[in-house]
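Input structure tokens:
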């Protein structure tokens, strides 16, 4: 992996933040943005006019809206594309990239159509040899904090130990600390599923419920994440780390969280269609709730909070009645005899 020849694919807030972080360490970083006005704003005024217009970006961060020109000259690509568009972008990149290109994924979600994880997309698009060296970055870190140079920490997961350590070193700085792991599935699912639970926590807050209700939702939501994660091969201890509990706490409690804010608005009586009008960046949890609902049903994994979010979003059920049903579910032990959290 060439740590000096890096481009970020995706000009949203999180892609911009990671590009800014890397630009503080490297002589030059290139950001690909689909929107020409984003590229123009970064190159001419050193800010992203559509997604984070009020924060300045490093002068050695350059941008382009020409995907081919970026992919063909860079050997390390940090891909930060909304999950539902990731496959199509990867297919474009496949026809442009050098065979030795290394990929780092910082997207969070589960594909709706195929119910696949992003790691599975890389395997299907590029084949196992390339997919084996892909790394995945996830953890409690808001774009605004990272751009501002506030301290943050994340997990980097990969199957190839040397590549994972190289990616850890690439992103780590005095303000940004990366921890490495080989639990790709655990890190991926922690980053994806916490968005659904953040929606639930926001709905609870929008309904006017107290801190106790939010704490219960977060705790039992984590139990659901662990159940599905273990079913798919993730390690339970990973979900107690940065990409699990850490990211869940941040996303479910902060007003900077798009997912929590969407939940608050749902709990306050707005519909999903009303919320999405005029919104440029998508709250990933909205689509992930759909994916998780179908995936959990397919696998037979009990996820009552995630199912409740799905019903509010896609069956337009009234949030208060859904919460009431959750509270009236049959009583059970908190975990089974093997220590696994029950539904």
């Amino acid at each position: 992996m060439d740590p000096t020849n890096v481009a970020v694919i995706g000009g949203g807030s999180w892609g911009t933040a990671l590009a800014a972080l890397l630009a503080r360490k490297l002589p030059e970083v290139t950001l690909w943005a689909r929107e020409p006005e984003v590229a123009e704003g970064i190159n001419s005024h050193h800010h992203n006019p559509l997604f984070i217009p009020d924060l300045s970006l490093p002068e050695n961060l350059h941008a382009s809206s020409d995907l081919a020109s970026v992919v063909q000259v860079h050997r390390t690509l940090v891909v930060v594309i909304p999950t539902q568009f990731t496959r199509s972008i990867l297919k474009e990149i496949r026809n442009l990239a050098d065979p030795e290109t290394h990929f780092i994924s910082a997207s969070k979600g589960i594909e709706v159509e195929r119910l696949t994880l992003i790691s599975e997309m890389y395997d299907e698009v590029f084949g196992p040899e390339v997919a084996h060296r892909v790394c995945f970055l996830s953890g409690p870190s808001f774009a605004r904090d990272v751009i501002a140079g506030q301290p943050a920490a994340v997990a980097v997961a990969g199957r190839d130990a040397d590549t994972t350590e190289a990616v850890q070193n690439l992103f780590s700085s005095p303000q940004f600390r990366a921890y490495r792991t080989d639990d790709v599935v655990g890190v991926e699912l922690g980053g994806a599923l916490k968005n659904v639970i953040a929606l639930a926590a926001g709905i609870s807050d929008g309904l006017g419920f107290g801190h106790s209700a939010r704490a219960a939702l977060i705790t039992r939501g984590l139990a659901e994440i662990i159940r599905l994660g273990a079913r798919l091969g993730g390690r339970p201890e990973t979900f107690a780390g940065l990409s699990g509990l850490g990211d869940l706490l941040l996303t479910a409690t902060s007003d900077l969280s798009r997912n929590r804010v969407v939940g608050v608005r749902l709990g306050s009586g707005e519909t999903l269609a009303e919320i999405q009008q005029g919104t440029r960046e998508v709250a990933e949890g909205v689509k992930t709730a759909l994916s998780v609902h179908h995936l959990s049903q397919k696998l037979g994994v009990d996820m009552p909070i995630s199912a409740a979010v799905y019903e509010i979003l896609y069956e337009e059920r009234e949030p208060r009645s859904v919460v009431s049903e959750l509270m009236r579910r049959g009583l059970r032990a908190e975990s089974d005899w093997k220590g696994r959290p029950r539904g």
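Residues 186-327 form a domain with the N-(1-d-carboxylethyl)-l-norvaline Dehydrogenase; domain 2 fold (CATH 1.10.1040.10). The beta strands are 6-9, 29-32, 61-64, 76-79, 102-105, 135-138, 152-158, 176-181.
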